[in-house]
Amino acid sequence: MISPRLSLVLGVLFISIFPVLVKWAPVSGISSAFYRMFIGFICLLPFVLIRKKLVKPAPAQWVPIIICGILFGSDIAVWNLSIQYSNATQATLLTNLAPVWVGVASFLFLPDKPTARFWIGTLTALVGLVILIGFDTFASMRFDKGFLLAVLSGILYASYMLISKTVLNRMNIVSFMTYSMGVSSIYLLVICILANEPLWNFEPQIWGVLAIQGIVCQLLGWLAISYAVHKMDATRVSLSLLSQSVVTGLLAWIFINEKFTLQMILGGLVILLGIAITFKRQPKPGPEGDSLLSDNL
Question: What is the pLDDT of residues 254-264, one digit of tens each?
Fold first, then answer.
């Protein structure tokens, strides 16, 4: 069985490809989001049906599954809208506040409270994020519609992480992903139709990019991340996803020649340091006074 930490690393790598692919495919953000979910769904559905992996949820599980599908679809849609009203940098920074909201919600509502190490790691990672995008950009943010939508995107993302954790504790990952992506696909399709977003007449190259987004970024990426959420704490996983900005920057530098500065490298290292703090093991007294190593969260 794959290690949850390795699964998390692979998941971050797969979803980090998405922004680079978006630059290659000039498609509406909401249309792209729909096909990302729908292609992933139609690729997963035959597998779970043929392998008989699709388990019917208990009646009480349908509500959180539907909520997760709507939350994930809403997060993508709201994030795209926030970019239209502001810019991608500001929207990305504010959306990445999700670990803070996960930590706050866990502290208020869940029995497993985040420890001091989590908050230190979160603060360190957020400082790295500010360094990554630049102090001038951070200081010039305006509290306008774009700002509020980006913050809302982070809250939706955090809510999805927490609720999906409760569902994944009670059903297998592929069943949850199948139902959740099905709900998201229907939800985003309705939004596309209402907003009159383009859904066809794309060039073959664009269809190819959309397929990669659906199979690699959505299906493989979020299967890996969902497995990590199932095996690990949602707070730790959500904070680890901050490393997506570092990986995306590297991939953009390698494949599409985007600028990657020393400041960005420094910010990325600080983000990774913050994540490492939450993964650091600390001594815990054993039954006979010996020290045992255990996860802090």
Answer: 776 767 677 87
Which is more confidently placed, 16 or 292? 16
Residues 6+ apart with CB under 8 A from 170: 58, 61
Q: What is the per-residue pLDDT for 293? A: 26
User: Which single residue is written with the structure tokens 């420890």?
Assistant: 115
Give the Cα separation of 207 and 200 in Å (integer): 9
Write down the H helix ranges in 134-261: 135-139, 145-168, 173-194, 204-212, 221-231, 234-240, 243-255
Tokens of 46: 């035959």
- pTM of the full predicted structure? 0.75
User: 284: which strand partners?
Assistant: 292
As a whole number of angstroms, the distance between CA 125 and CA 243 comes to 9
CA 140 to chain centre: 26
Render pLDDT for 219-237 as a digit per residue (tens, 0 to 9).
Answer: 999 889 888 888 887 667 7
Percent above pLDDT 90 for the chain: 30
- Classify residue 199 as exposed, middle or buried by CB count within 10 Å of its CB (0-12, 13-18, 19+): middle
> Would you list the domain boundaries of the chain?
4-100+133-232
Paired with 282 in beta bridges are 294
